[in-house]
Amino acid sequence: MQRVFDHIAFRPVVNLSHPTLANLSFTLYAVLGVNEKTQILTTFLWLRLYWHHEFLVWEPEDCGGVTRISLPVQDLWMPDIIVYEFVDDDVSQHCPYVYVNHTGHIRYDRMLRLVSACNLEIFSFPFDVQNCTLTFGSYMHTVRDVRLSPALSFEEMSVNSKQYLETSGEWELVNLYGQASVLKFGIDEWDIITFWVVIKRRPMLYVVNLLIPSSFLMLIDILSFYLPPHSVDRASFKMTLILGYTVFLLIMNDLLPSTANGTPLIGIYFSVCLALMVISLLETVIITNVLHQNSMKYREVPSWVRVVILKYIARMICYKRPDETAQPSASMASGQEHKAARPDPVCPSWVVAPGTPVHAPVSHTTSNNGAVAACQVPSVPELRQICLHLSDLRAHLLSQQKEDVLLEQWCHVGYILDILLFRIYLIIISCYAMVIVCMWCIWIKQ
Length: 446
Hints:
It is a single chain. The chain is an alpha+beta fold. It has two domains: 2-202, Acetylcholine Binding Protein, Chain: A (Distorted Sandwich); 205-325 and 366-446. The chain is 39% helix and 24% strand. The strands form three sheets. The protein has a six-stranded mixed sheet with strand order 3-5-6-2-1-8, covered by helices on one side. A four-stranded antiparallel sheet has the order 4-7-10-9, covered by helices on one side. Strands 11-12 form a two-stranded antiparallel sheet. α4 packs antiparallel against α5 (265-291). It starts with a helix and ends with a helix.
């Protein structure tokens, strides 16, 4: 065989016009990793290559019945079959020998750690399905020199790959199919075999570490609306919640894929959730401002607010004031009795100092609103002082009563707005969650 070894540089055919037939098959043994940022797929293949050597033919009877031998691969010509998507140095372990049959058919087995470029679609992450191509073909020899065809059917390759796939990590093999075709570049044509490797991500890790904690934080944000805004600082609670959600996103940022082509849907989901929390905080700020209108010199509720909010919006959301359940006749009767029992003048005529006649002249002057403006008791200075103090006390009580009424009205306005905005917030979150779930379900079925 030394003469064959000496002609290793020549294609082993008797007639150079006849192309060399080569057959190829592989088994996907492991999916080592997917790098979304660099768009690289790393796999481990068992590659098997067949071709025909027309000068390595013998009769088994003349050679003691030997039908197959092994020879060093560096001493024989072999087709230069490469993977067009290969983007890294070949660090795989090479097999130093090939099997040669007495008919001249050679089989070459090798393990191939393949780092290939792949156009990854990460929009549906973590429920994404990737379809990567592996194109096998000759680098230098055209169809006139080397003809390439699959050694097994594509269905058999897919079944073998699913059977021998050892990795049970993040990715699982869905399907493996291919097509033999001719690649034309200029006036030359090359035989190629294109394989499509369909892999699917196992999303449980990301569901447990990303989606469920985010859903819990959003649920807490929704339940925070049940905190009474007038007695609890709801804004501080929501700000703490937003801060916690931001820290959660910073911690989980390494788990999210990042590419320059687009943003995954889960990234949009987190951004919208954060935006909804900010909107919830703004709603709390608005309600707090409404509830504290009494600190702005006790401004009265505008008439349009009474009509729009206290009448129409309250009726629309089925809001009832607590005092509406009481019987109005009983409250009016108790108010009249209380008014009749209470002496109207602030400076009554029976308030006299010791030693003063009961028929001392006492005069009062009342303003339009019924409050006593002045009390004149010329003969008794002590009574005049008491009358002035009682007048100030009455004015303070009337002012406090007015403040309480205004505060109650603004509280009802704030509660109505709080219930309305909370229901709108619930509708927005429900619609958003339904859209996200439907989009992910559609991509899972594809």
